Structures are given as structure tokens and as C-alpha cells.
Amino acid sequence: MTKFENFIKSQIVHTLPQVLPSWAKQSDNTGGKEMSKFKGTTGPWYRSGKTVYALNEQGFNRFSALVQGAHTSDEELEAIARLIAAAPELLEALIMCYQSMSSVLPDFNPFDQAAYDRARAAIAKAEGEA
Fold it and tell me: What's the pTM?
């Protein structure tokens, strides 16, 4: 198991009952505004080459997006497509980490606070609040 997997298992898994279902309204435990529900297509998203797509419950295409660029290598375009395809899981994991960090906020050092603020900003951007 990697260090990240160990961290997730030891620090995050115990919070799953609090954060799942993951895209519902949730308190950020800071007394601030609640995190809003993600309005896009939830995962999983898939990738085939430079195409990212999601399927509905019947297995039909829900959306697809072709990553393309005139002056960009296929290798870079496929890397971008992999990142896009991972977006739902990344957002869900970031929300879980953010909420876990919220529970220990008074004990943060300045570096932790910077990570916390960046996580909140990234979540807000993904949810269309930034």
C-alpha cells in the first residue's frame, strides 16, 4: 500500500459515513456556507485515447469530449484526457480530504491552512462557485 493509500485508509475512510453520498449538500464544519451539490455528470468517466465520456444507466453515451489541440503532441493530449476522466474521483477525494482537514482546523499550522484554502478554492471552482 502506498503512503497515500495508507493516509486515505487511516484518516479518511472513517469519515465516509459523513461525506457519502458524496455530492450532496455538506457542511464544511467551519461555520461557513455549505458545499453545494456538483451539477455536472457524476462519475465514473472513461477515456479512450483522447476522448473522455460517461455512460448512463442503460450503457448509452451520456456525454463525450474530444481533447484536441493544433500544436500539442498526442502524448500530452492523452495525458489531459486522463486527468479529465479522473475529475469526478479527484473532486470526491478532495472533498473528503477537505472535510477531514476541517475537523482539525484549530490545530493547523500555516502550511496546512494554505492547503486547506487551496482545497476549498478548487472545490468551489469545480462546483461553479468561483
Answer: 0.65
